TrEMBL record, chain A:
Keywords: Cell membrane, Membrane, Transmembrane, Transmembrane helix, Transport. It is found in: Cell membrane. CDD domains: TM_PBP2. One of its GO terms (molecular function) is ABC-type phosphonate transporter activity. GO terms for cellular component: plasma membrane. Residues 107-290 form the ABC transmembrane type-1 domain. This is Phosphonate ABC transporter, inner membrane subunit. Belongs to the binding-protein-dependent transport system permease family. Pfam families: BPD_transp_1 (PF00528). The chain crosses the membrane at residues 21-40, 113-137, 158-182, 269-289. It is a multi-pass membrane protein. InterPro entries: MetI-like, MetI-like_sf, PhnE/PtxC.
TrEMBL record, chain B:
InterPro entries: AAA+_ATPase, ABC_transporter-like_ATP-bd, ABC_transporter-like_CS, ABC_transpr_LolD-like, P-loop_NTPase. SMART domains: AAA (SM00382). One of its GO terms (molecular function) is ATP binding. SUPFAM superfamilies: P-loop containing nucleoside triphosphate hydrolases (SSF52540). It comes from Accumulibacter regalis. Residues 5-247 form the ABC transporter domain. GO terms for cellular component: plasma membrane. This is ABC transporter related. Keywords: ATP-binding, Cell membrane, Membrane, Nucleotide-binding. The keyword Nucleotide-binding applies.
Length: 298, 270
């Protein structure tokens, strides 16, 4: 009896980890099945009536981004009614050039929202991260609320903050800036706290051992080891926010998102393609620049 | 000769264990003292006491004319540390600052206010730092970040920092740990040169470096002074005795320590 029990426990000891993993994998598979089965039973698991035809049509329009018209558009496009009367004449080149100018202004708005929002978020997060960094051991009465604020801020999406803020401060970039700031404050707080936690204590001891005062220790040991990490996190979140703020226009914060929602509601896929190209170039350019700078810093 | 430091019936304890119990020890200015002993014999504890990072439990301790029986107030402790230079086991630099900036940290005791915050050191300190780096042979690497330097170079930067700090007492805790023999000898030579006008107390593990670093050797064993002799009188037999495992754990420790400690291995062979 005893031997059986010991054998059993030895078996469990050896396989407990794998059994646990197997159970988790099984639970995951069940969840995926449940999602698929319930969607299928509700008849929602469809691709619409003519997915292929729609795909071809949309892709065709996407393949001819509207900005090409600024050079190759018909300068004398005539709109006629069914009986052949000339309604109006449009210079496609002029119209698209005007659209491109608007696109430039929208891009600038998006950059402004992301830049100011990120900066505000970083500034808000700084004191909170000092309170939450474990190695600084701030009093629990302060650390706990700070951590809660950061967690809540991080778990609410920028878009949700934006919707609420548009109701408070009205339509416009201010709502976008505040939304970006509030959400990224949570991310900043976490990254900053980690930077502070990875502080090099040997460096601090080295400076203290020559008789330096607290302020001198801060500027000669703490600041040089923390600053590059702060700058690196800032660039990272800023880059992320450039991407995030392109969508904010959809809810009325202005910028590229406004043009996206305009183009999609009018089914102008050519214009949407133009806007998306600008977004990709903007984000990729910023990404490359920030990666360069971060690599040079670390 | 005035005493640089005196210890009298000093006791240092942590969690009920006695780390250090020294009846009497006096070091006069300008002495070269080496402390040897097995791991856990209290060598580093002694250095931490002398630099004010650890207060004694009881007894009298005086360093550079300051009584340190009870913890010093911060201002006095900093004033003491300005006069006590420290070289640790190669980790004692600000990794993100350049070699030159690490050397300039040695001048923080003299430079104060915004210049020390923004690391805009006065021109004469910059000249001195360049001179210090030159004398340890690292001027060419002055603007390399400290965490990109090799172990030997890092120790040389720490010594150059001492040259700028110009302390009256230098504490070196295994300054040659993890260095190859040639680099170790070089670092010892530079350290002694840097301590030309100061008292030098070093913790050493490699007996062959003793003649380079010290004229007087103190052997610590289980927190007590086992011997206190001129370096010429420290022979093989005393070293073997010093590194011999304590009676209680002799059986369990012998094979391992015989393999690690050079003196013990020599004894086993002879």
């Amino acid at each position: 009896m005893i031997t059986v029990r010991t054998l059993e426990s030895r078996f469990l000891d050896r396989f407990a980890g794998r059994i646990g993993f197997l159970a988790l994998a099984l639970a995951y598979a069940l969840l995926v099945l449940a999602c698929l089965a319930s969607l299928a039973s509700e008849g929602e698991l469809t691709l619409g009536r003519q997915p292929l035809a729609n795909l071809v049509k949309t892709a065709g329009e996407f393949a001819r981004p509207s900005f090409l018209d600024a050079w190759f558009g018909n300068p004398h496009l005539e709109y006629r009614s069914d009986d052949g009367t000339l309604l109006r004449v449009e210079n496609r080149q002029e119209v698209e050039l005007a659209y491109l100018a608007g696109l430039g202004r929208a891009t600038w708005t998006t950059v402004r929202i992301a830049t100011l929002g990120s900066l505000l978020g970083a500034l808000l997060a700084l004191p909170l991260s000092v309170l939450t960094a474990r190695n600084l051991a701030a009093p629990r009465a302060l650390a706990w609320p700070a951590k809660t604020i950061l967690d809540v801020a991080r778990s609410i999406h920028t878009l949700v903050f934006g919707l609420v803020l548009v109701g408070i401060v009205g339509l416009g970039p201010t709502a976008g800036i505040l939304a970006i700031a509030l959400h990224s404050m949570g991310t900043y707080g976490k990254l900053f706290a980690e930077a502070i936690e990875s502080l090099d204590m040997a460096a601090i001891d080295a400076v203290r051992s020559v008789g330096a005062g607290p302020v001198q220790v801060f500027f000669n040991a703490v600041w040089p080891s923390v600053l590059p990490q702060f700058v690196s996190s800032h660039l990272y979140v800023w880059e992320f926010n450039i991407r995030d703020s392109t969508i904010l226009g959809i809810i009325g914060a202005g910028g590229l998102g406004l043009l996206i929602s305009e183009a999609t509601s009018l089914f102008q896929w050519g214009r949407l393609a133009t806007v998306l190209i600008v977004i990709v170039v903007l984000v990729a350019g910023f990404d490359a620049a920030s990666r360069r700078i971060r690599e040079a810093l670390l | 000769m005035s005493p640089c430091l005196t210890l009298d019936s000093l006791l240092c304890q942590a969690q009920g264990r006695t780390l250090l119990a020294i009846d009497r020890l006096t070091v006069v200015h300008g002495e070269r003292l080496a402390i040897i002993g097995a791991n856990g014999a209290g060598k580093s504890t002694l250095l931490r006491l002398l630099s004010g990072f650890l207060p004694p439990a009881s007894g009298a301790l005086e360093v550079l004319g300051r009584r340190m029986d009870s913890p010093l107030p911060p201002r006095e402790l900093r004033a003491l540390r300005v006069e006590v230079g420290q070289v640790m086991q190669g980790l004692h630099l600000v990794g993100r600052l350049s070699a030159r900036e690490n050397v300039l940290i040695g001048s923080l005791g003299r430079v104060s206010g915004w210049r020390s915050w923004l690391r805009c050191f006065p021109a004469d300190e910059l000249t001195r730092a360049a001179g210090a780096l030159h004398s340890v042979g690292l001027l060419a690497r002055a603007d390399t970040r400290a965490d990109r330097l090799s172990g030997g170079e890092r120790q040389k930067v720490a010594i150059a920092r001492l040259l700028l700090q110009r302390p009256r007492l230098i504490l070196a805790d295994e300054p040659t740990a993890a260095l190859d023999p040639a680099a170790a000898a070089e670092v010892c030579r530079l350290l002694v040169a840097a301590a030309a006008e100061a008292t030098l107390i070093s913790v050493v593990h490699n007996p062959s470096l003793l003649p380079l670093l010290a004229d007087r050797v103190i052997g610590l064993r289980l927190g007590r002074i086992a011997f206190d002799l001129p370096v010429a009188q420290v022979d093989e037999r005393r070293l073997v005795d010093l590194y011999r495992p304590a009676a209680g754990d002799e059986a369990s420790l012998r094979p391992a320590s015989a393999a690690i400690d050079p003196p013990a291995r020599l004894a086993a062979l002879s």
